[in-house]
Specification:
Among the domains are: 37 residues, no CATH class; 160 residues, 2-Layer Sandwich (Muramoyl-pentapeptide Carboxypeptidase, domain 2), CATH 3.30.1380. It is built from 14 helices and 7 strands. Bound molecules: zinc ion (ZN). Zinc ion binds next to strand 5.
């Protein structure tokens, strides 16, 4: 309400207004002076820069200059081309030749990076017939009762329950068993390779009956969730002086050799010590999973310890339900 303001109040207001006006002008002048100084500095430095450029040696021709410049980092992720656009990759995928796919992509590491970056739409980590399939407690086989093609007996090893694998994995295991003997390390036996959906039903039920469901879930897979159903996984035993048990394998000379060298035959130890929160399983140094030479080499060279991390998948500590 200005009409009720006293004369003193009005004159005080006028004085305050005049003072703030002076302050505003001073501020404007200061800002103007700073701006002028800045423009001056920029102008002088531009002149100096121009002089420098004109005295410099002429740069090489366009293309050479472009090659000498480092590629900007931000374009690599955004413009990652699909490995599937490569005709050789596409042809190998269509032919079902998994090893040729990885080779054509540029090797296991390039293949892995493309999958992780989403630049491999023709590669399905859910296809149970492929070497790169990932089965875990979050990723059941699809279809759940999948049966692999080309199952054969693995020869040359002491056999217990099922010495059966898909042919590519069987040949690789035979080669590895021979190498272990040649290296004078000992001898491996095979306890359990391919297990059908039906067999896994029985195996899992037996484990639940023996130790309860919680115990069964950390040491064996539920039906439809086992790598053994893929036909490319084998449980090994140490068999130098008569065969030991699965639990003896990790500490045995054969087990240590396998941990260090199985990648050379296309295998990985799937469940390592210390990775239960990711794999969902306690350490199983005896459980060898075939990936093929290129992918196993990349897994070894990259220092990977779980297939989940290798392919950038979420951890699978437990079943969904
Ligand atoms: Zn196993």
């Amino acid at each position: 309400m200005t009409s009720t303001a006293s004369p003193e109040t009005l004159s005080t207001r006028r004085a305050t207004r005049a003072a703030s006006e002076r302050l505003r002008r001073r501020r404007l002048f200061a800002v103007g002076a700073v701006l002028a100084l800045l423009v001056g500095v920029l102008w002088v430095s531009a002149l100096l820069g121009g002089a420098r450029e004109t005295t410099a040696v002429a740069p090489p021709a366009g293309p050479a200059l472009a090659q000498s410049l480092p590629a900007p980092q931000f374009t690599t992720a955004a413009a990652a081309p699909s490995i599937c656009d490569d005709p050789a990759v596409a042809a190998a995928v269509a032919a079902g030749d998994d090893e040729a796919v990885v080779v054509a992509a540029g090797g296991g590491t390039v293949f892995r990076e493309a999958v992780v970056a989403g630049a491999a739409p023709c590669v399905s980590l859910s296809d149970p017939a492929r070497r790169w399939v990932v089965v875990n407690k979050q990723r059941p086989l699809d279809p759940i009762e999948y049966e692999p093609q080309n199952l054969v007996d693995v020869k040359g090893l002491t056999t217990f329950n099922a010495g059966i694998l898909r042919q590519d994995a069987a040949e690789a295991l035979q080669a590895m068993a021979a190498a272990i003997e040649q290296a004078d390390v000992g001898e491996i036996g095979q306890l359990s390779g391919y297990r059908s959906y039906g067999t896994q039903v029985t195996t899992y039920q037996e484990n639940v009956a023996r130790g309860g469901q919680a115990e069964a879930d950390v040491s064996s897979a539920r039906p439809g969730f086992s790598e053994h159903q893929l036909g490319i996984t084998m449980d090994l035993m140490p068999c130098s002086n008569g065969c030991g048990t699965l639990d003896d394998f990790g500490a045995s000379p054969e087990g240590q050799w396998v941990a260090e060298n199985s990648w050379q035959f296309g295998f990985i130890v799937r469940y390592e010590e210390g990775y239960t929160p990711i794999t969902g399983y306690e350490a199983e140094p005896w459980h060898l999973r075939y990936l093929g030479p290129e992918l196993a080499r990349a897994y070894h060279a990259g220092g990977w310890h779980t297939l989940e991390e290798f392919f950038g998948l979420p951890a699978a500590p437990d079943y969904a339900g």
